[in-house]
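Lecture 7 notes: from sequence to structure.
We start with the chain below.
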Amino acid sequence: MPRLKKLTKKENFSGTGRRKTAIARVYMQPGKGAIMINDVPAEQYFMGRTAWQLMIKSPLEVTNMVGKLDIKCNVDGGGITGQAGAVRHGISRALLTYDAELRQALKKAGYLTRDPREKERKKYGRKRARAGFQWTKR
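Predicted structure tokens for the same chain:
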């Protein structure tokens, strides 16, 4: 179980997370566990969808840091799922700047790996990246 560091002043710990085309800049400091995304509480930002809320809180649960850090995120680009993944990646990286001993737990859960999947580009002569136009014989 990780121990809390003794802080003499208000220190900020930061991390950048990316997923698809979304980029999240995450700042955390010791506090009561509030999570703000673009100056809106996380529960309100993700419109009550518990899957996305659980996704962004999962690095904190793995490292037993729930309720110990205040988190502020600036997210830009992508859709709501990509933004949730970017916030999770950013929180994981910010936790490493807070305490390097958390690396093993985060790495085992797979939260430090940036998901490289991007949307495939549309090809000419096709409807989408791989789907062709409908062909009729007669």
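Points to note: The longest helix spans residues 80-98. The chain is about 30% helix and 20% strand.
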